[in-house]
Design goal:
Blueprint (H helix, E strand, L loop, with lengths): L22 H8 L7 E6 L2 E7 H7 L11 H4 L2 H4 L1 E2 L4 E2 L4 H9 L5 E6 L2 E7 H11 L1
Parallel strand pairs: 4-5
Antiparallel strand pairs: 1-2, 2-3, 5-6
Protein backbone atom coordinates (compact mmCIF):
# COMPACT_ATOMS: atom_id res chain seq x y z
CA UNK A 1 0.00 0.00 0.00
CA UNK A 2 2.96 2.35 0.35
CA UNK A 3 3.09 2.56 -3.45
CA UNK A 4 -0.48 3.82 -3.69
CA UNK A 5 -0.86 7.41 -4.82
CA UNK A 6 -0.89 10.06 -2.11
CA UNK A 7 -4.34 11.12 -3.32
CA UNK A 8 -5.76 7.99 -1.64
CA UNK A 9 -4.60 9.24 1.76
CA UNK A 10 -4.56 13.03 1.63
CA UNK A 11 -7.17 15.29 3.17
CA UNK A 12 -9.09 16.63 0.20
CA UNK A 13 -11.24 19.34 1.78
CA UNK A 14 -8.35 21.64 2.56
CA UNK A 15 -8.93 24.65 4.77
CA UNK A 16 -6.75 27.48 3.53
CA UNK A 17 -6.34 31.22 3.95
CA UNK A 18 -5.44 34.10 1.68
CA UNK A 19 -2.38 36.30 2.29
CA UNK A 20 -4.61 39.32 3.03
CA UNK A 21 -6.57 37.70 5.86
CA UNK A 22 -5.96 38.86 9.42
CA UNK A 23 -4.50 36.55 12.04
CA UNK A 24 -7.85 36.40 13.80
CA UNK A 25 -8.98 34.09 10.98
CA UNK A 26 -5.97 31.84 11.53
CA UNK A 27 -6.70 31.80 15.28
CA UNK A 28 -10.26 30.65 14.65
CA UNK A 29 -9.07 27.85 12.37
CA UNK A 30 -6.61 26.62 14.99
CA UNK A 31 -9.34 26.66 17.64
CA UNK A 32 -11.29 24.01 15.72
CA UNK A 33 -10.95 20.38 16.72
CA UNK A 34 -8.91 17.85 14.75
CA UNK A 35 -7.21 20.39 12.54
CA UNK A 36 -3.85 20.01 10.81
CA UNK A 37 -1.28 22.33 12.35
CA UNK A 38 -0.42 23.73 8.95
CA UNK A 39 -2.58 26.02 6.87
CA UNK A 40 -1.88 26.53 3.17
CA UNK A 41 -1.96 30.09 1.87
CA UNK A 42 -3.65 30.40 -1.51
CA UNK A 43 -3.87 33.36 -3.87
CA UNK A 44 -5.57 33.22 -7.28
CA UNK A 45 -6.12 29.48 -6.70
CA UNK A 46 -2.35 28.89 -6.38
CA UNK A 47 -0.38 27.79 -3.33
CA UNK A 48 1.95 30.63 -2.32
CA UNK A 49 2.76 29.86 1.31
CA UNK A 50 2.15 27.91 4.51
CA UNK A 51 1.41 28.98 8.06
CA UNK A 52 2.37 26.56 10.79
CA UNK A 53 1.09 26.60 14.34
CA UNK A 54 4.64 27.48 15.42
CA UNK A 55 4.71 30.49 13.04
CA UNK A 56 1.38 31.62 14.45
CA UNK A 57 2.32 31.17 18.12
CA UNK A 58 5.64 32.96 17.64
CA UNK A 59 3.98 36.02 16.14
CA UNK A 60 1.17 36.29 18.69
CA UNK A 61 3.41 35.84 21.70
CA UNK A 62 1.66 37.25 24.74
CA UNK A 63 -1.64 37.92 22.94
CA UNK A 64 -3.61 35.30 24.81
CA UNK A 65 -6.91 33.83 23.71
CA UNK A 66 -8.97 37.02 23.68
CA UNK A 67 -10.09 37.85 20.12
CA UNK A 68 -9.87 41.55 20.94
CA UNK A 69 -6.08 41.62 21.19
CA UNK A 70 -4.82 44.10 18.59
CA UNK A 71 -2.19 41.73 17.15
CA UNK A 72 -4.94 39.59 15.61
CA UNK A 73 -6.13 42.51 13.52
CA UNK A 74 -2.74 44.18 12.88
CA UNK A 75 -0.93 41.26 11.29
CA UNK A 76 -1.98 39.53 8.11
CA UNK A 77 -1.23 36.01 6.96
CA UNK A 78 1.39 37.32 4.50
CA UNK A 79 3.32 38.75 7.47
CA UNK A 80 3.88 35.34 9.06
CA UNK A 81 3.65 32.76 6.26
CA UNK A 82 6.53 30.76 4.85
CA UNK A 83 6.60 31.60 1.14
CA UNK A 84 7.17 29.08 -1.66
CA UNK A 85 6.41 25.98 0.39
CA UNK A 86 7.53 22.48 -0.47
CA UNK A 87 4.77 20.41 -2.08
CA UNK A 88 4.18 17.13 -3.86
CA UNK A 89 1.93 16.42 -6.81
CA UNK A 90 -0.86 13.88 -7.01
CA UNK A 91 1.58 11.64 -8.87
CA UNK A 92 3.56 11.10 -5.65
CA UNK A 93 3.10 7.89 -3.68
CA UNK A 94 2.45 7.42 0.01
CA UNK A 95 6.04 6.20 0.28
CA UNK A 96 7.30 9.42 -1.37
CA UNK A 97 5.47 11.50 1.23
CA UNK A 98 6.64 9.26 4.08
CA UNK A 99 10.28 9.67 3.01
CA UNK A 100 9.96 13.46 2.90
CA UNK A 101 8.19 13.67 6.27
CA UNK A 102 10.66 11.23 7.87
CA UNK A 103 13.47 13.71 7.17
CA UNK A 104 11.87 15.98 9.76
CA UNK A 105 11.89 19.24 7.79
CA UNK A 106 8.12 19.29 7.33
CA UNK A 107 5.10 18.16 9.34
CA UNK A 108 2.60 18.52 6.49
CA UNK A 109 2.86 18.57 2.73
CA UNK A 110 0.43 20.33 0.40
CA UNK A 111 -0.58 18.28 -2.63
CA UNK A 112 -0.86 20.02 -6.00
CA UNK A 113 -2.48 19.00 -9.28
CA UNK A 114 -2.26 21.22 -12.36
CA UNK A 115 -0.87 24.03 -10.15
CA UNK A 116 -3.96 23.89 -7.89
CA UNK A 117 -4.06 22.88 -4.23
CA UNK A 118 -6.07 19.65 -4.03
CA UNK A 119 -4.99 18.16 -0.71
CA UNK A 120 -2.68 18.03 2.26
CA UNK A 121 -1.02 15.14 4.08
CA UNK A 122 0.52 15.25 7.54
CA UNK A 123 2.98 13.14 9.46
CA UNK A 124 0.05 11.90 11.56
CA UNK A 125 -1.79 10.80 8.40
CA UNK A 126 1.22 8.73 7.31
CA UNK A 127 1.68 7.16 10.75
CA UNK A 128 -2.02 6.23 10.95
CA UNK A 129 -1.82 4.73 7.48
CA UNK A 130 1.13 2.49 8.32
CA UNK A 131 -0.38 1.47 11.67
CA UNK A 132 -3.62 0.45 9.96
CA UNK A 133 -1.67 -1.42 7.30
CA UNK A 134 0.08 -3.71 9.79
Amino acid sequence: MKNHLISTLMTKNVVYVSPEQNLIDVKHIYEKKDFHHHIPVVENNKLIGMVSLIDFMYHISGAGINDDDKIYKQLQVKDIMTPKPFYLTTKATIEDAAKVLAQGNYRAIPIIENDLLVGIVSTADIIKHFLNES
